Amino acid sequence: MNKTFTSNGEVYQRAMAIAAQSRGSAWTNIINFGASDSAGQADITNYKYFRIKNLDDTNFIELRVTGTADSFFVKIKAGETFLLMDNEIDAVASSTTIGTLTDITQIAANADTDGVDIEFVCVTA
Question: Whose CA is closest to 20, among 60, 71, 58, 53?
Answer without folding.
Answer: 60
